[in-house]
Amino acid sequence: CEAQETTTDIQVVNDSTWDSLVLKATGPVVVDFWAPWCGPSKMIDPLVNDLAQHYTGKIKFYKLNTDESPNTPGQYGVRSIPTIMIFVGGEKKDTIIGAVPKTTLTSSLDKFLP
Q1: What confidence score (pLDDT) does residue 114 get?
Q2: What pLDDT score was predicted for residue 49?
Q3: How high is the mean pLDDT of the chain?
Q4: Beta strands 11-12 and 91-97: pairing type?
Q5: Residues 14-70: pLDDT tens digits?
Q6: CA atoms within 13 A of residue 47's CA, in its CB half-sphere
Q7: Cis previous bond, 82, omega within 30
Q8: Can you tell me the distance from the alpha carbon of 99 to that of 103, in angstroms, rounded to the nearest whole number?
């Protein structure tokens, strides 16, 4: 694995912090379900990092390693990664599956901006 994947500024969420960070958050929350061995996860990682910077102060971004925290993805029916989910007020509002173009992600995210 390349070292660059650890240079992300996006906070990590896991099974034990899920409720407090995602479900009880105010405003929109994006969760990137990923795994270190997944090629497409690595491909969209720079995009997710760019978006996290672009939406700073508007949308919270988290990454969840599906190997380290298998309960949460199971609870939300995540069957393939990368999967990006958008939560508002503790409810899942949107799901984007696979390595998609940045424009697909931004058009999904823009729907949830105040």
Answers
A1: 77
A2: 94
A3: 91
A4: unpaired
A5: 999 999 999 999 999 999 999 999 999 999 999 999 999 999 999 999 999 999 999
A6: 19
A7: yes
A8: 12
Place of tokens 């298998």: 70
Give the DSSP H or E segment for 43: helix 39-54
Cα torsion angle, 61, 92, 99, 73, sign: positive
Asked whether the predicted pLDDT for residue 81 surpasses 90, the reply is: yes
Angle of helix 102-110 relative to helix 39-54, nearest 10 degrees?
A: 50
The phi and psi torsions of 44 (rounded to 5 degrees) equal: -90, -5
Q: Alpha-carbon distance 67 to 60, whole Å? A: 22
Give dist(CA 35, CA 65) in Å, integer.
5
The owner of tokens 């500024």 is 9
- Alpha-carbon distance of 40 to 45, in angstroms, equals 9
pLDDT for 5 equals: 42
